[in-house]
Amino acid sequence: MSGFLRITKRKKALSPIVSTVLMINISVAMGIGYWFWASGMLSTFMSQSRLQYTLLEERNDEVVVIENVVFKGGATKTIVVFVRNIGTREAVIKAVYVSGAAVTTTPSLPRTMYVSGNITLTITFSWSYGSSYPIIVATSKGNQARGEWVA
Known about the structure:
With about 150 residues, the protein is an alpha+beta fold. β1 (about 65-70) and β2 (about 80-85) form a beta hairpin. It has helices spanning about 1-10, 15-60; strands at about 65-70, 80-85, 90-100, 100-105, 105, 110-115, 120-125, 130-140, 145-150. The protein has two domains: about 1-60; about 60-150, Immunoglobulins (Immunoglobulin-like), CATH 2.60.40.
């Protein structure tokens, strides 16, 4: 047992100063590596958010409204929808829905509407007097003009 104690007493460990300097250098190197990694990730996230903001901004520039709806009777019942672009960009009318169902229109869609332009869409639809019909006009960017009219 006394021989074991003599062997362990002869070995010397690193001094506290050297071990502290090593820990500081390792921490700084890890921090620099983390900084490069995080800055690369942040630039990726920022470019994606910039793209998302640009898309939302373009979407806000496209505004269409339904100005009037006329229900015409006769042998073939039709609905005439008057749509106007009041936004600052041209809008592409992609679809029209009556009571939640997609309908075909005359003229056929998609149809481009220029700034301050208007379009008259005629829909062949079997409607009833006194009934209420929700109408939605959707654009290619996802904007909607909607309202509910009574025949």
